[in-house]
Amino acid sequence: MTVSSPSTPKGSVSPRPVIDPDVFGSPEYAANPYPTLKLLRDHYPAYRNPKNGLWMITRYEDVVNGFKDTVNLSASPNGESIGGVFGPTLMEYDGDDHTKLRNIVAPQFVGMKLKTLLPVVTRNAMALISQFTERQAKLIADQASTAGEIDIVDDFATRLPLNVILDVMSLPQEAHEMFHQWYPAMMNGINGGPHLRALGVKANQDYHDYLDPLIDARAKDPGEDLLSRLATARVDGQQMTKAEIKSFASLILVAGAETTDKAIANLWYQLLSNPDQWAAVQANSELLEPAFTEMMRVHPPAAAQMRKAVRDIHLHGETIPAGAYVSLSIYGANRDERVFTEPDRFNIFRDDLFLGREMRGGYQQDGRSGHLGFGLGKHFCAGYQLARAETVIGTKMLMPVIRNPRFKAGTNPGPIAIRIAPWSLKLEFDAA
Is the dihedral of CA 408, 411, 416, 419 positive or negative? Predict the structure, then answer.
């Protein structure tokens, strides 16, 4: 049970529903957190979980303000979760330390730099599609008129982003399988128990050992790849330390692969769950851009970002004490009915969502608000344009090959967040 409603005498005001704190660790919440998040938005917009002391902020306006507030809220908790596996990354820094490190990193993923990455995305997508085509051709030869099958997660979504990252860092594609083992272990180590944390730390160390001689070599003889640029970049005379380069490389491996693969898979899930939307993007592939934006609102890969209160914060009649941990709920904010009409509905034609490219400062104008899937402010995702490009280009190129797709019979598909449980999205389609 998520809530219980105490009996109320006739004529009296209904009390707020009682939230069972055990719900947040339940399989039901993991599968569909949105009904509980709505209860929090409506009745407990600043909610303290009595079991662990965590404060949850779920309304859009409050989450936006929380992302932008670097005076009262610190990003240091990222050092305890992500940093516990990767070492120091820019996600945990505040103030001048964050600004200097971000100035080195972010330009590699935005603006003109993205144009050099687009051919990489295209080349990798085409290579994978060629494999699918060859495999389906063999199936047709072996089993005439048999429908094709693909797992969007394992066969495409987890492969494309990782191949792109290998190319961006100028690492051999032959290392794909090794990297494909490392990054899930690293991701699971962030939020998992002691055993998974140990496996994540081990995978991260193996990755760093692999990178160590490469960083030295490229610092002496740099190329045009990202690893060379990080090894030689300077801002105000300051250079990233070797530990910071390796930690950022870990962050890129997980954020670029683990997050983007879920964006790709979630886009396919949402489109195929809404046949009218699928028909629309098939008729006009340019609609994949707003479809990606709406997917990032309805069910982005990341559920929340964690902060720590630097001083007492007063919100909605509650006092969040200094030192308390605060969860800025992206899932909750993105489905706030105070901002979005029919927020649980996937609709690429909605007129209350800003459908352009994401912006670090957010977007609210003429009744349209931006999704919060990439965060906001100083900790806005540095790789957001690359994630969008990989998802949109990869999907655009895959659609003509996957003809008349449908969820495989007997499967129970659903959207996926960053979590430990394995996930797949198996489709059947008409083979060529």
Answer: negative
